[in-house]
Write a structure and sequence with these properties.
The chain is of the alpha+beta class and 709 residues long. The protein is built from 22 helices and 24 strands. It has a seven-stranded mixed β-sheet with strand order 2-3-4-1-7-8-9, with helices on both faces. It has a seven-stranded antiparallel β-sheet with strand order 15-12-13-14-11-10-16, covered by helices on one side.
Length: 709
């Protein structure tokens, strides 16, 4: 049998259908010589500190740094995950070959490799590497399976990222929590999240310290056309008033008229970050919202693989463009003109040198069924489709007219723009939901000028001196923060490093949304509409960490290193040595007492967080069970108690653990009967949840009854 391992059940079902495997078994689908099974994303994770040493169970400064001589992995403690892993392990024992069908990216490679390693896979392993889940793409992928060894460098980069984040996160979080934390307050530190937080804290400091300064602008209206004085702004009102007196009621002569035609290219195709930026601007979607929506569109087979960092297509996509356009049946009014003519092959769209693992996000060549999309999915798809169509449309063409005039030898200027051909801009107007479009603010450059002639003279009837004030920089929104993370090199002063960082920023397209959500979850940021603002806790953290941790330069170097590992230009040993040195540096810096005077604010009860004693007592040590955004945990965690109940632990069953359920489990060791879906077979029914103390406090299903049984 050939065993295929997908990253989630829904993808496994798509693959099984194409392969002709139809027999549903417990945890896999079988048929036609294949057994198609799945993970639930991560089944394995790096071991925790206490798995390596008893001395690392209790949080103490004396135990730092924690650097295991060799890193290991373990199964995530979850009965559903353990059962599914057992199924995978058994299938591998009799497999003639294994086909890794995980997401085709660095994280997907890491997820599947860990499972294969933990299961002790001995048979040959091949890689399915596809950019969409359409039937054609899956069939083509299986016809051209790749050697697993082709992706070893990609795996090594993912592994180095995971271990580097473990070393920094585990050591620095304990270090700063013990050094500065107040009353059980955890100070989370991250390789990417901390410099990202620093961007927001620094921007807010600029805003807080900004002192607006007045300036004056002189404008006049001539034949319904606004002219501005070419001298620019006046920093003193007296200067503006003196100039006003010179030209008031004087003759105004048109001295020069110039016309210049221009064209504007369509914006580039979307990578994940630019799509997140656009969705935040147009629909106020968070980066995480957009990632989930585009992932759903990918799994519904209407868009290509989303976790990409390129805005280009490879040359082999060019002959497939007509099929993709034909698949957009609801957009026939926009595709008809493209299909009649020869599709333009533009280097701004097709460039093999700019594409590595995947190309830009575009629609697939499958037939779109709009009724299968949610309202928000429809909005995201409209952007992807509009951008794809736009790059093949004619340029947007316009003409800019500049009119110069003089009064008392002082020059004035007015600009006007006339649209000659809408070109690609017509596509977005037609596809992007009109309710979300922002109206452009009218300014002088957008005005349509009347017919004016050189030499015509009029007397100025009115002129206005307008008082304005300089404005502070705008606070970060998710869209502007994502752009800043992607282009973090511009915050680096070293020109050589700035050039190196063009291809790497803070995090990756796939991780940036999670970083922002993490900063919100741990209480370093708050959302106010679209705006992201630092909390007092976030400000204090940036005060106490050294400049090296705040700077995008450090993380940019690491991202560059990880990219070099994936390309085979750097060894993982060299990269990990730099991380170890950095951890040692942080410990020495904190020990210096550099910012001993910084006091963090008391932790406030936020959102749905409950008071102590709200849920019951720990079944192992008797301390209180508390809640944070991710779990219900024991108050004795610093003393080594490992009991916790993750809120998403029941997600495979279609449930989310809530406070009421936790109270009942802690009090009676079982819940009331609840509706569940079995992840192995998709069967629906009801069951009772039990708290199994013999398995470390895991939640298990008991007495499952099928629906309509």
């Amino acid at each position: 049998m050939k065993v295929c391992i997908a990253e989630k059940p829904s993808v496994a079902r798509e693959i099984a259908e194409v392969l002709g495997a139809t027999k549903k078994m417990n945890g896999y689908i079988e048929g036609n010589g294949y057994q198609v099974t799945w993970t639930f994303g991560h089944l394995c994770t790096l071991k925790e500190p206490n798995d390596y040493s008893e001395n690392w169970k209790r949080w103490s400064l004396a135990s730092l740094p924690m650097i295991p001589p060799r890193f290991g992995i373990k199964l995530i403690s979850n009965p559903t995950y353990e059962q599914q892993f057992k199924t995978i392990e058994e299938l591998m024992q009799n497999a003639e070959m294994v086909i890794n069908c995980g997401d085709a990216g660095q994280e997907g490679e890491l997820i599947q490799r860990w499972v294969l390693q933990k299961a002790g896979c001995k048979c040959p392993v091949y890689r399915l590497w596809i950019s969409s889940l359409t039937e054609e793409a899956i069939r083509e992928g299986f016809q051209h399976l790749k050697e697993q060894s082709d992706f070893t460098k990609l795996y090594e980069a993912g592994l180095s990222r995971a271990i580097g984040d473990w070393l920094l996160g585990m050591n620095a979080t304990r270090l700063y929590t013990l050094r500065y934390g107040q009353n059980r307050q955890v100070l989370s530190i991250g390789r990417v999240q901390t410099p990202t937080l620093a961007l927001i804290v620094n921007r807010q400091a600029e805003i807080d310290n900004f002192k607006p300064e007045p300036f004056w602008e002189l404008k006049t209206v001539y034949r319904n056309t606004t002219f501005s004085v070419t001298k620019g702004k006046f920093t003193k009102k007296e200067e503006g008033e003196a100039f006003l007196e010179i030209v008031r009621q004087k003759e105004f002569t048109v001295t020069d008229i110039s016309e210049k035609k221009g064209k504007e290219y369509a914006p580039r195709l979307f990578d994940l970050t630019s799509l997140q930026v656009e969705c935040n601007k147009k629909f106020a979607f968070t980066a995480d919202d957009t990632l989930k929506l585009i992932q759903s569109l990918y799994e519904k087979k209407v868009t290509t693989y989303p976790r990409v960092d390129t805005t280009f297509l490879s040359d082999d996509i060019y002959p497939k463009v007509p099929n993709t356009l034909n698949g957009l049946v609801d957009y026939i009014d926009l595709t008809a003109s493209l299909l009649k003519a020869k599709i333009r092959k533009d280097k701004r769209v097709f460039d093999n040198s700019k594409v590595t693992d995947h190309h830009a996000i575009i629609p697939t060549d499958g037939k779109l069924r709009p009724e299968s999309l949610s309202e928000d999915e429809g909005k995201v798809f409209s952007l992807v489709a509009a951008r794809f169509l736009a790059v093949f449309y004619p340029y947007y063409r316009y003409e800019v007219t500049k009119v110069y005039a003089e009064a008392e030898q002082e020059r004035f200027l007015s600009k006007g723009t006339v649209v000659l051909e809408e070109g690609w801009q017509a596509v977005e107007k037609a596809l992007v939901p009109t309710a979300t479009k922002k109206k452009k603010a009218k300014n002088e450059e957008e005005q349509k000028l009347p017919l004016l002639q050189e030499g015509e003279v009029r007397t100025i009837r009115s002129m206005e001196l307008l008082r304005k004030r300089t404005k502070p920089p705008a606070p970060y929104t998710e869209s502007s923060l994502l752009s800043a993370m992607e282009n973090a090199g511009r915050f680096v002063e070293d020109e050589a490093l700035k050039e190196q960082m063009k291809d790497s920023g803070l995090g990756t397209p796939a991780t940036r949304a999670a970083i922002i959500e993490r900063l919100l979850t741990v209480g370093y940021l708050t959302r106010k509409g679209k705006t992201l603002l630092p909390t007092e806790k976030g400000r204090k953290l940036i005060e106490v960490v050294p400049q090296e941790m705040r700077s995008p330069q450090t993380t940019g170097k690491w991202e560059k290193g990880l990219s070099s590992i994936a390309k085979g230009k750097m060894t993982e040993e060299r990269f990990m040595a730099s991380i170890r040195r950095y951890v040692q540096f942080l410990i020495q810096d904190a020990a210096s007492g550099r910012r001993a005077d910084v006091i963090f604010p008391e932790e406030q009860v936020r959102g749905k967080r409950r008071k102590t004693n709200a849920f019951g007592k720990c079944p192992f040590c008797g301390r209180d069970i508390l809640e944070n955004s991710k779990s219900f945990y024991c108050a004795g965690w610093k003393s080594g108690c490992k009991f916790s109940l993750w809120k998403d632990s029941l997600k495979p069953y279609g449930l989310e653990l809530d406070g009421g359920m936790v109270k009942l489990l802690l009090k009676k060791n079982k819940s009331e009967r609840v509706a569940v879906t079995l992840p192995q077979t998709g069967e629906k029914g009801t069951a009772v949840l039990i708290l199994n103390k013999d398995k470390g406090g895991q939640i298990e299903l008991m007495d499952f009854t099928r629906e309509n049984a």
